[in-house]
């Protein structure tokens, strides 16, 4: 199992998580490496836990099915559980956000495309459509009368 792990400095918000439901699936965007031939491919790929794709040779379905252009082998990945939310902690602590069961491939680099959610720490304000693609995020919590932010994001892919 591989996990996408996050370390981030949250201020005034907690429970940072991908907006990922059956009605609004989140697409996790990665660069992918073939573990058969070790080629890392230049194009970004996207994986959704609500999407099923047919594998060749009656191997059933998987969330992500991918054929390596270099060695022509077909590989797959599945997401078994819903994402976990990232809590505010001081100092920031690394935490797994989502785990992947990968067959013949590894995700090697993550791009934070898509909408993220977070909750005001004391105010319970719901922040939606948080964009982390450019890195830091800043907003204002009207209920708490205070600035909120998410900074110093570090994405890692590690063994789960
Ligand atoms: Zn390959």
UniProtKB/TrEMBL annotation:
Transmembrane segments: none
A Pfam family recorded for this sequence: CXXC_Zn-b_euk
Keywords: Metal-binding, Zinc
Record bears the keyword Zinc: yes
Single annotated GO MF: zinc ion binding
Keyword hit for Zinc: yes
Family indicated by similarity: Belongs to the UPF0587 family.
The protein's name in its UniProt record: DUF866-domain-containing protein
Native species: Mytilinidion resinicola
């Amino acid at each position: 199992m591989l996990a996408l792990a996050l370390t981030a400095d949250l201020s005034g918000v907690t429970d940072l998580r991908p907006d990922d439901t059956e009605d609004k699936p989140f697409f996790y965007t990665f660069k992918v490496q073939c573990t058969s031939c070790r080629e890392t491919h230049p194009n970004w790929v996207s994986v959704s836990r609500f999407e099923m794709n047919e594998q060749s040779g009656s191997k059933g379905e998987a969330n992500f099915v991918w054929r390596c252009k270099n060695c022509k082998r077909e590989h797959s990945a599945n997401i078994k559980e819903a994402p976990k939310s990232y809590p505010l902690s001081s100092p920031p602590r690394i935490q797994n956000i989502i785990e992947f069961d990968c067959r013949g491939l590894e995700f090697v680099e993550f791009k934070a495309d898509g909408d993220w959610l977070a909750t005001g720490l004391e105010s319970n304000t719901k922040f939606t459509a948080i964009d982390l693609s450019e890195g830091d995020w800043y907003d204002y919590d009207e209920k708490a009368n205070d600035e909120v932010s998410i900074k110093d994001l570090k994405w890692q892919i590690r063994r789960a």
